[in-house]
Design brief:
Strand content: under 5%
Oligomer: single chain
Number of strands: 0
Shape: elongated
Radius of gyration: 16 Å
Length: about 80
């Protein structure tokens, strides 16, 4: 499936959503997302009390919402695809 070079995240062939990044910018965004998730896990595990699980989950939720926003902005328009 050929995608527009302006899209960082091509649409999945089947289903709804985006596939793996198709440009270096998309790979940077994905790497930053996972880096912040891992860094947050270390921060909340080492520097915060054990009761901070709710704060970590809120942090990951915010990061995920930002990541989906970037995918929506720089990815192919989402729609259900049959292939």
């Amino acid at each position: 499936m050929q995608s527009d070079p302006g899209y960082w995240f091509p649409a999945k062939r089947y289903g709804l959503g985006w596939g793996w990044p198709s440009t270096w910018q998309g790979w940077v965004v994905l790497a930053l997302f996972w880096g912040f998730v891992a860094g947050g896990a270390l921060f909340f595990r080492v520097l915060a009390p054990p009761e901070a699980l709710a704060a970590y989950l809120a942090y990951v939720g915010l990061l995920s919402a930002l990541f989906v926003g970037v995918c929506w902005w720089k990815g192919e328009p989402p729609r259900w695809r049959w292939g």
